[in-house]
Amino acid sequence: MSRKYQVKAVPVSWILHEGRRLDCGPYMSGAVEARELLQSLPMRKDPLQSLTKDGISGIINPGRITRNWVDDPEHGYRFLSSTEILQSDLSNISLIAKSAARQNANLLIDKDWILITRSGTVGRMAYSRSDMSGLACTEDVLRVIPNPEVVKPGYIYAYLTTRFGVPLVVSGTYGSIITHLEPHHIADLPVPRLGEIEDKAHNLVQRAADLRVVAAAQINESTSRYLAAAGLDNISPYEWIKNSGRTGFTAKISRSILRAVNYIPLNQQLVEHVKIKSPKWMPLGKVTEQGTLKRGLRFKRVDADQEFGLRLVGQREGFHFSPEGRWIAKSYLRNDPLINLSEGAIVVASQGGINESDSFARAQFVYGKKLEYVYSEHFLRIISNEHIIPRGALFAYIRSNLAFRLLRSCAVGSMQQDFHPDLLAELPVPLIAEDEAKAIDILVRDSFQKYDEAIDCEDQARAIVEEAIEKGGH
């Protein structure tokens, strides 16, 4: 959001249509302007509820649920929070008891739905992919279920995410920004009918969804292949919780490390498992570029316009497929490899809680469009020496549940965790045959190219819808 002082002249007809409101909010949000423009266009416009299954019943607020979390996948559904609907990797999300879905059938979602955050940051949207079908989703997300007999779902998503749709979604009856979104707030939202443009937009949105499904599958395949080539087995969250022995144990400790979490028996066994089973291994500190296995540098965060800035991404947005950080001035950023990350760098969430649902120790690959961002100092930087291991191959290992547990075994701190630098540098990294490592590296990079192509497809879908509206549907 711009911090500039804003001045805008509006016609008196807008003020009359908005119930003679004189506060500037409704007129600055863009909602009034979008509504007035749509009303002036000659094209047919249908209320959103006429395009959803069973009318307004196809716009669902599932209602409050009892959140009973479970560890065993047999007794739970993977549960999407209002931020996780924007993530590309859904393999490590929390499990909610299946009894919650029996109590509230609206908890589960299906593919081709439009998901809209309805509290907190209202109006963030995602198109439900095939790999999201059957997952549980928070009551803080509104479900819009298009009727495929009257409209293509991808078009509805494309339109709602345009510069015309977003202001109408997040505005109330009189254009004021609302704190909670309810079905009746958007039931009568006007949807312009654009003929062939609707099919084109739908196809682009659907292709984006399909690309993300394929990319996520390839990423998981890369991890499985790397561990298999190293002769290692991954460990599921449930296996770790059940067998960790963390509730009570004895251990021989060193003088410098006194914290129990660094001696959890199963983590110690996993370290030995990597060292014994792998054909070859090296400490993490030896496979990375010198001086890079550390958190990022601190820098001034001076807000700037887009043309003069770079987008800053923190741990909260870092795992979204299209992060939306604030724009900060380029001129205040030092020319340092820990700030200006090179292609194939790995960033790991390195500050935060250590509960199972926390992102601490989760990894992200910096490639393609992700190189356009500046990452906050709260990420650990892991930049491999490619003479030892290709960067995509190292990411395939670092993102595994096995490596995740090893990284967490290096945690220090009380409420907010960080990594112990000495323990981190000593973590074993299995090395595999060069040909297979290169093949895995190619697979990872191809996956992130697909993620980027998906973003381009969605951008193109929005662009053709906006252009058609501006031209009056022609």
TrEMBL record:
Molecular function GO labels: DNA binding
What keyword terms does UniProt attach to this protein?
DNA-binding, Restriction system
Keyword DNA-binding in annotation: yes
Q: Which residues form the signal peptide?
A: none
In terms of InterPro entries, this protein maps to: Restrct_endonuc_typeI_TRD_sf, Type-I_RS_S_subunit
Q: What is the top-level taxon of the source organism? A: Bacteria
SUPFAM superfamilies associated with the record:
DNA methylase specificity domain
Q: Which biological process annotations from GO are given for this protein?
A: DNA restriction-modification system
- Which NCBIfam families does the record cross-reference, listed alphabetically? antiphage_MADS5 (NF047740)
What's the protein called, per UniProt? Restriction endonuclease subunit S
